[in-house]
Amino acid sequence: MKPEINLIDVEYLAKHGHPWDQYEWLRANAPVFWHEEENGPGFWAITKYVDLCAVSQNPKVFSSSVTGPLIQDRDPSFFFGKDSMVFAMDGPQHERYRKLLARGFTPETLAVLRPRIREIAIEILTEARQKGTGDFVSEIALRLPAGLIAEMMGMPRQELEHLTDLVPSRHANDDTVASPDEMMSSFMEQLTYGQSIAEIKHKSPENDLASFWVNSEVDGDRLTAEEFTWFFVFLLMEEGARVAMASGLQLLFDHPDQLKILMSDIDGHIETAVDEILRFSGPVPCFKRTAVEDVTMRGQNIKAGDSVMLFYASANRDEDIFENPNTFDITRNPNPHVTFGGFGPHECLGKHVARVEIAVMFKELLTMMPNITSNGEIERAKTNLVAAISYMPVKY
Ligand code: HEM
C-alpha cells in the first residue's frame, strides 16, 4: 500500500527518524518522484542508488550553484553562502577552490591528525566518565568534532566549542536557545573569528593546517582570507560526524549481537563497523541539485529550473546494490555506501578524517566504558538538514 509521502516533514523526522517505508515504496514504484511541498515549489525525489550517483556525477546538467545544495535555499539570487561555500559552486570555480582545500586532506595530514584525535577523544571521554551519567550528544559527540576543528585551526578547543555550539540545527528543538537575530549575530561571530584566524596565521604561521591553507600556493594560486573564512564557517556547520556518533551508539544499543561482535575484536571490526553505521544511519538526509536543462530520467521529464533532491539514506538501503539492506551488519564488506555523496565532484572532502574520528571515538569509548548503556528516551532534532539524535541519556 502506498504510504503518504512527505520525505521532509520535520515533525515526522523528529518523531520517527528517516521515513524508511516511504523510501522503500518510492524505490520500488516511483524512483524519480515529483514531491509536492506545502510551502514550496516541489522537487524531484531521487531514491535509488544508480540514479543518485548519475545525478551527482553530472554537474553540467545538475547544478550545485544555481540555488545551492540545501533544501531551504531556493531563491537563485540569494541563498546562504552563495558564491562562497565550496558545496554551492560549480565548474572551474569549484575545481579551483576544492583543489586548494584538498591539500589539507591528504594521507600525510591524516597521519598527523590521527594521534591528536585520539588524545582529544580520551580527554573528552575521561571528563564524561567522571560524571557517571549524562547526555552522550552534548558531552561527547558534539565535542570531538569541535576538538578536531580546533586542532586543524591551531586554536583553543574551548573557543571552537563555543562557536560550534551556535550552529542553528543543533537547536532545532529548542526555541529558547536563540532567536533568529541571535543566530545571525552568532553567524557573524563565526565569520569574524574565521577572519581573525586567517590574519593571525598569515602573520605568524605555525605548524597547523590553517597556516598551511592560508600561506601555501598551488601553481601560483592560494586561498584568499575570505575563501579561508567561508571554509572555516563550512567546517563549523558540518554536522555529519557528531550525528553519526550518536546514531552509531544507538544502533549498537539496539543490536546487542553486533555490539558483542565488535567488543570481541574492536581493532579487527572497527573499520567495517564505522562504514555500516554510516550506511545504516544516513546522517545527511538529502542534498539538492537544480536542473539547468530539460532532461528525462526513468521516463520522467525534469524541466530546467526544477529542484532535484538526492536521498542518500534511501540509496544506502537499495535492494539492487546491498544484500539484506535492512540488516545492520558491522562486518559488511564491501560496503559502497553513498553517505559521503554519489562519487561526483562534490564527494565529501573530509570522508577519511570523519571515518578516523568516528572509529577512534568508538574504539576509546568501548575500551574505557565497556558497560555504557542507555539511560532513558532519546530525542531527535526537528530538522531535515541532518538526521540527528539531539539528546541521548546514557550511563557511562
Ligand atoms: C560522517 C560525517 C560526514 C558526512 C556524512 C558528510 C557528508 C557529506 C556529503 C554528502 C557531501 C556532498 C555534498 C554534495 O554533494 O552536495 C559532503 C561534502 C563535503 N564535506 Fe562532508 N561529511 C562528513 C564529514 C566531513 C568532515 C569531518 C569534513 C571536514 C573536516 C567534511 C568536509 C566536506 C567538504 C569540504 C565538502 C564539500 C566538497 C565539495 O563541495 O567539493 N565533511 N560531505
Written account of the structure:
The chain is α+β, with helices and mostly antiparallel strands and 396 residues long. It has 16 helices and twelve strands. The longest helix has 25 residues, at 107-131. It has a single domain (10-395), classed as Cytochrome P450 (Cytochrome p450), CATH 1.10.630. The model has no long low-confidence stretch (mean pLDDT 94). Helix 5 crosses helix 7, helix 9 (180-203) crosses helix 11 and helix 14 (266-281) packs across helix 16 (351-368). It has a five-stranded mixed sheet with strand order 1-2-8-5-3, sandwiched between helices. It has a three-stranded antiparallel sheet with strand order 4-12-9. The protein has a two-stranded antiparallel ribbon with strand order 6-7. Bound molecules: protoporphyrin IX containing FE. Residues 56, 64, 69, 86-87, 98, 235, 238, 240-241, 244, 278, 283-284, 287, 339-341, 346, 348-350, 353-354 line the site of protoporphyrin IX containing FE.
In short:
The chain has 396 residues and is an alpha+beta fold. The chain has 16 helices and twelve strands. The chain has one domain: Cytochrome P450 (Cytochrome p450).
Which CATH class is shown? Mainly Alpha
Average of the residue pLDDT scores: 94
Multimerization state: single chain
The total count of helices amounts to 16
Taken together, the total number of domains comes to: 1
Beta-sheet strand percentage? 5-15%
Structural class: alpha+beta
Extract low-pLDDT stretches: none
As a percent range, the share of helical residues equals 40-55%
- N-to-C order of helices and strands: HHEEHEHHEHHHHHHHHHEEEEHHEEEE
Distance between the termini: 43 Å
Strand tally is: 12
CATH architecture descriptor name? Orthogonal Bundle
| Broad shape | globular
